[in-house]
Amino acid sequence: MKRQSYIQVTIVAGFVLLWTLVSVSGIWFERLFPSPWLVLIEAIKHLREGAIYPHFFYSAYEVLWGFLIGAGLGVALGLLLGSRRALGEIFEPLVLALAPVPKIIIYPIFLWSLGIGIYSRVGMGAASTFFPMVIYAAVSVRQVRPIHLEAARLLGAHRWNLWTRVYMPAMLPYLWVGLRLGIAISIVGILLSETKMSQKGLGFLIIEYYTHFQITEMYAVLLLVFALAIGINSFLSWVQGRIPALRHGRQIREGIF
């Protein structure tokens, strides 16, 4: 096990220990911070009884469509801005200025325009995914060096060969990092939107337990959401480690964080 892994395990163990100490320190703290073992038991109970699965699949459906729409539009616009310098100089500062803005503040606009149903939450997920995909797609195009394009043309490469042999190998690691960030932000955006004007979904379930002061159940669902997010990230990291064209993306992500 690497040193970093030991440190990570120690941090998690320390957090669980601190949580346990806080939960047993008094009646009030026990109500607000139930024992992590009780939360774990409640999470297992949720999985066994199966009542959480309809909420999970509902949220997954929203995340999937929000991610696909946001990623598709983001990549298309990012490639355009990256390949057209004049457009990039005009619109990229606007994209960079709007990207850090919490998307939940524009959720009322989706409610007004798309209604209180699933479409407004899909729109929220798409908006959350859109901005990181635009940024990384634009950056990915600029990784293609003109000298490589000229060399490929001199060797007789056609447009399709340029895209498959020059553009895509240079762009793919950056697009992969954007996809990983996009799906993570999409999940956050969808769950936040489900806490408002929704009757189903993991976000709805969390806020429902909170409203009825079912704290252990609320933490149990949060624990399952964290486990799901870790599982998705681990799977994407596993895929990245086994595809040579994506391995550079890990270096890019580590350089960012």
Task: Summarize the structure in words.
With 257 residues, this protein is mainly alpha-helical. The chain has 2 domains: 33 residues; 223 residues, MetI-like (MetI-like fold). Helices cover 82% and strands 0% of the residues. The chain has 12 helices and no strands. The longest helix has 36 residues. It is globular.
Shape category: globular
Mean pLDDT score: 82
Could you give a short account of the major beta sheet?
none
Output the number of helix runs.
12
Q: What is the CATH level 1 assignment of the largest domain? A: Mainly Alpha
Helix share, percent: over 70%
CATH topology term of the largest domain: MetI-like fold
CATH architecture of the largest domain: Orthogonal Bundle
Contiguous runs where pLDDT drops below 50 for at least 5 residues: 249-257
Terminal residue distance: 21 Å
CA radius of gyration is: 22 Å
Looking at CATH, the homologous superfamily of the largest domain is MetI-like
User: What is the β-strand count?
Assistant: 0
Order of helices and strands: HHHHHHHHHHHH
β-strand percent reads under 5%
Number of domains: 2
> Structural class of the secondary elements?
mainly alpha
